[in-house]
Amino acid sequence: MKGNPLPGIPVVESPFYEQLASTWDPETRRIGDALRQDGFAVFDFPEPALDRLIDEIRSDLNPQYDWAGWRAVGWKNRIGLRIQDAWTFNAAVRSIAANAQVLALLSHLYGREAFPFQTLNFPVGTQQATHSDSAHFSSVPERFMCGVWLAFEDIDEDNGGLVYYPGTHKLPIYTNEHIDACSATNEHPTAHYGDMVALWQALIDTHGFQAQTFRARKGQALIWAANLLHGGGAHLNPGRTRWSQVTHYYFKDCAYYTPLESDPFFGSIHYRTPVDIATGDAILSTYGGRPIPPDTISHGLENMRKHAPQPLPLPEGFDSAAYLAANPDVAAAGVDAAEHWRSYGHKENRPLA
User: Fold this and answer.
1) Which residues contact 204 (CB under 8 A, 6 or more apart)?
2) What whole-number distance in Å separates Cα of residue 293 and Cα of residue 141?
3) How far is CA 238 from the centre of its chain?
4) What is the pLDDT of residue 334?
5) For residue 338, what pLDDT is reported?
6) Residue 9 CB-half CA count within 13 A
7) DSSP labels for 97-148?
8) Are 229 and 93 in contact (CB under 8 A)?
């Protein structure tokens, strides 16, 4: 067989996998076989200076988290701590995300050039509900997205391990139309997300998928497929940290969008223009090897924005100074009072004064 008769399907999920992967080296083939069978694969992160990079990240990001609030109530309420896209100001985060060996590995596995577009840095367990990333960021052709989760320290159930369901990546990718939802007509574009979460749990229950927990040692990484059902285990011991980094990767020559906020046949598409972390370049969407016309993207985004959510309204008479005085840990962290209340305070029933 010459070439790839199905370039619109990732190699690791292709019906022609055996032929396409026949020349891979043993380690790439091991990872490819695991990713194809289970939807995830574990490997040692290929960075000689990893310890130094981890130390730099922890030192820089540590003061930016609301530790006091999380230890007081956040961890009990399954609220995590995260910083998104720290690569924009931290060179070590960017270096890990743009690791050349990882990019080459992913490009082999998927058959298209990989590029990192988002980072998430966690000092504790996410305690996140089971979900598929395909609802949040996807591509056309579909499944050209994956994540790499890297442990910055030893991790187990006590400090919030990663929970995943092997084999669930082989399920169809379900989007709004499959649950009779239309984000364009919702009061809030993601108001139906709870229905999607319920669907994922029903699929697990119906098919008998069994959860596994990744008990990682420092420096181990896990690649997972876009449609793998996964989440964050409970962080049982608030005295322990769980430092880690997630990098999300897209692949070139695709269209990029957010299915949860898109209704293509209603004319509403939440297109993404991801930035390649390695180069800083914006990656434009293509279809069939051709750039998608700007007017098409603008039209899809315009229809989506007509229904964009408004920020959570502040309580009547909200006083930032009084809120900070009533919550000294927030004041000490240097966080904006209104932003903290919208993100955490209202969930934690924080006092307003």
Assistant:
1) 130, 165, 168, 229
2) 17
3) 23
4) 65
5) 84
6) 13
7) HT-HHHHHHHHHHHSS-EEEEEEEEESS---PPPB-GGGTSEEESTT-EEEE
8) no
Q: Specify the pLDDT at position 313.
A: 81
Q: pTM here?
A: 0.86
Q: What does the DSSP assignment read for 162-213? A: EEE-TTGGGS----GGGGT--GGGSSSTTTTHHHHHHHHHHHHHHHT---EE
Q: How far apart are CA 218 and CA 331, in angstroms?
A: 33
pLDDT in the model for residue 304: 64
Question: In the Cβ-directed half-sphere of 273, how many Cα atoms lie within 13 Å?
Answer: 10
Count of CB atoms situated within 10 Å of the CB of 168: 21
What is d(CA 255, CA 296) in angstroms, rounded to the nearest whole number? 12
Query: Can you give the pLDDT at residue 176?
Result: 96
pLDDT at 262: 93
Question: Which domains are seen in the chain, by residue range?
Answer: 11-305 (2.60.120.620), 318-353 (no CATH)
Q: What residues of the chain score a pLDDT lower than 70? A: 1-2, 303-311, 332-334, 343, 347-348
How far does CA 35 lie from the centroid of its chain? 17
Q: Give the SS3 label for residue 290.
A: strand
SS3 158: helix
